[in-house]
Structure formats: C-alpha cells, structure tokens
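Hey, quick one: can you model this chain's 3D structure?
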Amino acid sequence: MSKSKAAFEFSAKRLGTEKLYFWTFTFAEVLDVKATRKKWNHLLTLLRRKYPKLCGLRAFELHEEHGLHVHLVTNGWIDVNAARAMAIKAGWGRIHVKRIPAEKALYMGKYLTKEDRAPCLKGWRLWAAFGPWKWTKVKDVRFESEFSQIIRELAATSGGQNYFHRLAMADELYFKRLIE
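Sure thing. Here's the predicted structure for all 180 residues.
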C-alpha cells in the first residue's frame, strides 16, 4: 500500500463518523486534465461558499470513454438542485448522488490503486481533502522498514546531499546489510 492510499484511508475513516454522501460529477464532452481540474476548482469554490462547513474527499477517475470525472464523499447534505445549478455554472454536466454508510467511504480508494496511471495524470494528486476538518496528509504517514530507517539516518547525517544521492547510498547500505 502506498503512503497516499494509507493517508486517504485514514482520512476516509475519520470523515466516516458522520452522515456521508457519494457524488459523481461528469461532463457532457471529454475534456483534458487541466480543464477538468480548473472546472473542479470553480465548482468546489461555489459549493464551499454556499456550504462553508462542507467537508469531504475528492478523487479523480479517468474513464476511457467519458474522460476525467470527479468522485466526492461529503459529510453533509447538499441540496442536489442547488448543486446542479452550481455545476452548470461551473461547466459540469451530469451529477449523481446517493447516501452511503460510513464504511463505504473507503470505496473511492479503488481509484488510487488502478494498475497503470495514465500519462496525463502523472504529477497530479489523484485525491484531496477539503473543508474545516483534520484529515491525514501523506507526509503524516510513516512506514517502518529497514530501508526507511537507513534513509532517515542518511537524511539526518549527510548534510546537504540531494535526495537521489542519499537514495543511492541507502541502496548500497541496505544491500550490504542484507548480504552480511
């Protein structure tokens, strides 16, 4: 499991202590990733203005036929007609929403572990949290292994060496420890 997926799951479990709603936002036509993200930011701004206490998790999913669309789990009720009006204003097409039990919030994590990440999504965050709540950030997740301990030791002792140099040194040290 990646640190990102672990952080998502911790966040989903924390959000899942409230009533949850699962939303899907799609477009009538296929847009590129940048255009979709821009329209998502616009829609989220409109939603947060109307519902300032709204909290949730967002995940992007790339569909072969439908392009990029957004899945959203929110902690509170939003009037679907108001959401549709805001979505139209922000350039979105179809909206679907349903109430879900708390344990289903983890379902969105499946979009984070698809086998091959499309090249157009490289460097983009596939999920994000929003609103006034304390979610788990990827940097807060720490996996313990012998290799990760070596990396942390080198980071503490190697001064200004760059990450890739430390990584190469960690590979060497780890391999030496394995064969000893």
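One thing worth noting: The two ends are 28 Å apart (CA to CA).
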